[in-house]
Amino acid sequence: EYSFSHYKNIAERLHAAGKTVSSHLDGRLNGILGLVAKTGVDVADACTPAPCGDLTLYR
Predict the structure, then answer these.
(1) Per the confidence metrics, is the pTM higher than 0.70?
(2) CB within 10 Å: which end of the chain, N or C, has fewer?
(3) CA separation for the pair 35, 47 (Å, rounded)
């Protein structure tokens, strides 16, 4: 809600310059990972182990 448009804008600008976009994220992200993908971010570095994180290593 608060960061979506910022991430989308930055991702579009970096993609236009031929760059791959990566973002480091921490915490419980399972519920928003799809939204992060919609911003255009190519890689979400989100390896926060349980109990703080809720993503599997595979995901």
Answers:
(1) yes
(2) N
(3) 17
